[in-house]
Amino acid sequence: MDFQKSLRRNFAVRRIRRGVAVLAITTGAVLTGCSIARQYFAPNITSEHITEVRYLDQGWTREDRELFYSTPQGTELQGLHYQWLSALELPFSEETLASAENLRGWGFIVDGENLSRENSTGLHPVGMGKHVNTEDNSERLDLGCALCHTGELHYKGTALRVDGGQAIQGISTSGPGEFIVTLNAAAIETLVNPKKWARFADRIAGDNAAARNQLRQDLTRYVGEVWDFSQGPGQPKLFPTTEGRGRTDAVGRIGNVVFGYNLNIEENYKVANAPVSYPFLWDIWRFDWVQYTGFTNQAMARNVGESLGVMAPVKLVDDDGQLLPEGEFGQSTIDVEGMQCIETTLRKLKPPKWPEDILGEIDIARARQGKGLFADQCAHCHGPHISKPYVWPLASGPEDNPSNQRSTNWQWDMAGQVSYDEENRPVREDWRESMWSVPWIDIAVIGTDPTAARNYMDHTYDAGPLLPQVSEGDADSRLVNAGNGLQLLLNELVPVLYKSRGISSDGNGIADYDGLNVPFRIVNKPAYKARPLHGVWATPPFLHNGSVPSIYDLLSPLEARPVRFGVGHREYNPQKLGYVTDLLPGNFEFDTAQTGNSNSGHLFTDTDIAGRIGKRLSEGERMALIEYLKVMGNPDFSDALGSDPQNWNQYPAAPANTLGELACDRFRPGAANVLAQEERPQ
Ligand code: HEC
Ligand code: HEC
């Protein structure tokens, strides 16, 4: 069998051989003192001038924010040590790589209310935390949720922080001068350039010879990992559509990492040409189904899947490609307590409030007109469609599969808080007081770029050892799409992670960690979900693929939407509700003609074309809708609007969550095993 053969590659030998080859090439470049290289590796950054940071009253205390920004989830950047980020210099230069200016220019968030992690281990942007990898007890850089799910809008020198919003960084993108390319070039040059090495080693290890030696080994290993990644799930040919700023092909990348890299099946690498925007997360705990295509329902399984995509180290198979035995299978840095803490914190997050003093006063009469239009033209899709808590049917034995899943784990299902329906079948009653049902809108109806939804449906992966009962000759029946494949894996992996942290059904531990007593399910639909739009004004660019820069453009006819525009600068346009789109230095040029980038669909037009979802909106109607969207649901404006059906004070809060708060204790500022409370200069 091909897949068996490909599994037997020897990782270690390959890594060293290839690592050395890269080093040789780079050494050549260093020795020739290449000014072309210097130019190539000059940071491709935007330039931003901020004098004040403002938070938008989203219901978080400072501690909540701090927890979200720094709680680790167990992901790694090919094993990069936490301290290295700030000790590295730019390639072919002695300047600090992770300076505030560079980090900000790459689209990270480093500033504000002293929350940037500036301490003895240097500056780290929001969402770059750390965890200890027990393999060698080193502190590794951890890419947390906040890295992708925190936004910032700039307006005339003020930065408006949008917690749980959309990031604009381009950490997935490997073009000249981009963060990841610069970082890796710096690491390689540090190994081959003795002077650069000496400065780096002085910073990290001082003059302790053994520590310097270890550092060299660790850095060499990192470069080997990077090389391996670039030959596996990071192969450039898998990414024909540049992700650019503010996007990543999350599901495509998860598929490649999990089924290609972690299961070590070469044939499972698929083209990932459907980059998507980082979505916003307030109220997300209210949703019945999440992800753009709405393919899953449970927070923990979703998060563990995501952490695998963001390269959390995990042991799944042996050298022969067989699943590792109990005890070894699932050994990982994935931190389910960290994730539970973040989920608990996210449940307190509210949508951002439009700051009139900065972005301009609301025209109430116009907003009232918009309120009517929204109820007429938008609410039947965007809701929120309030629903009673669900009663989820359970698999109660090995043969049971009530919701027709690709795979169930009945022991996991039954480890939640189980009750029985009228027909005496086991169910889990969702703990939410009420929920939001999000409708799936078929891609043929909504007409937006279908690539993400089609890839999700059509890309198939050989599930290999996850389906041991399927004989090797029967390759076709081992093929699964990303959702079903993740289900096969996560049904095994999540319970192992729970066990390793002592989370059991006692005291409803599993029910709680499962995300409000929800059993893990997958649905496969070629559709995008229509989500509620509270606070959407603060989350440009728009649509799942970020192809429409502003809400004004989204409400305009297709021919009026920009075809090419710049993404990366955070200066906000409060008239159109989007970022400014000029092509400035550091910006990524978004080209809507590329696969995955289409800006079609979701159209308000009187011509009968694909993706028409409403009548043409006049200029005045568009402006009225925009005015309403600025304050939709914001309780401060409810009276002025003559009541607001979307008032977000009416939705019940999340049930109290003692276990979640407990999970946070390890991560609270001042707790022993996270960053010591740092000095906070402003
Ligand atoms: C590397 C960037 C990145 C990181 C890190 C990350 N996410 Fe996401 N997240 C995304 C992207 C991109 C999507 C959209 C993927 C899709 O649906 O195709 C997403 C989707 C989601 C969704 C579904 C949103 C919706 O509209 O349905 C939730 C919830 C979520 N993420 C929560 C988290 C949490 C919690 C963490 C940390 C435990 C996390 N994410 C870490 C990039 C990231
Ligand atoms: C037929 C159902 C439907 C109607 C009607 C509809 N929408 Fe949407 N809307 C969607 C879907 C589905 C998406 C997600 C599409 C995608 O990402 O490809 C969406 C996306 C959006 C987004 C982008 C959200 C984001 O995070 O990027 C905005 C803003 C929006 N709609 C506003 C409106 C407004 C305003 C109206 C009324 C004038 C409206 N929509 C009417 C289904 C609908």
TrEMBL record:
GO terms for molecular function: cytochrome-c peroxidase activity; electron transfer activity; heme binding; metal ion binding. Residues 365-633 form the Cytochrome c domain. InterPro entries: Cyt_c-like_dom (IPR009056), Cyt_c-like_dom_sf (IPR036909), CytoC_perox (IPR047758), Cytochrome_c_Peroxidase/MauG (IPR051395). Gene3D superfamilies: Cytochrome c-like domain. PROSITE patterns: CYTC, PROKAR_LIPOPROTEIN. The keyword Transmembrane applies. It comes from the Bacteria. The chain crosses the membrane at residues 20-41. Pfam families: RoxA-like_Cyt-c. Keywords: Heme, Iron, Membrane, Metal-binding, Oxidoreductase, Peroxidase, Transmembrane, Transmembrane helix. This is Di-heme-cytochrome C peroxidase. It comes from Microbulbifer pacificus. The lineage of its organism: Bacteria, Pseudomonadati, Pseudomonadota, Gammaproteobacteria, Cellvibrionales.
